[in-house]
């Protein structure tokens, strides 16, 4: 397995969707909504990807200002490539693209919740989520 890593290499919607389907992340993403998937890729301003030849085997998809905050919205590794260090490398390469004061922020998938503390993240219980269709009240 000779995996190469790329920063902001173009990724097709089909490649992205297939990767999410082949990882546990596909269960929590709108993989059947092509327009949404297109928006997710085209509006991300930092994408670090892992490739085995022409096969996309990992992705760290982020939205960031590069100076203060980077929201790592998708971290996915193909099931056949998990536990080989690809996820850690994707996060490290993402971090390398950011300024020295920029924080990497993510919402952990339930099965991965304990993983992040083991690799250096600190837990923050102050996150709030406003679901689609919910109107902000008084």
Keywords for this structure?
138 residues, alpha+beta, Aminopeptidase, 5 strands, Acetyltransferase_Butenolide, Acetyltransferase (GNAT) domain-containing protein, Acyl_CoA_acyltransferase, GNAT_dom
Commentary on this structure:
By secondary structure, this protein is of the alpha+beta class. The chain has one domain (3-118): 3-Layer(aba) Sandwich (Aminopeptidase), CATH 3.40.630. It is 25% helix and 25% strand. It contains four helices and five strands. It has helices spanning 13-21, 34-42, 86-96, 113-118; strands at 3-7, 46-52, 55-64, 69-77, 103-105.
Short description:
This is Acetyltransferase (GNAT) domain-containing protein. The protein is an alpha+beta fold and 138 residues long.
Low-confidence stretches: none
Largest sheet: 5 strands, mixed
Strand content: 15-25%
What's the average pLDDT? 93
CATH superfamily: Gcn5-related N-acetyltransferase (GNAT)
Number of domains: 1
Number of helices: 4
GO molecular function, one term: acyltransferase activity, transferring groups other than amino-acyl groups
Keywords: Transferase
InterPro entries: Acetyltransferase_Butenolide, Acyl_CoA_acyltransferase, GNAT_dom
Protein name: Acetyltransferase (GNAT) domain-containing protein
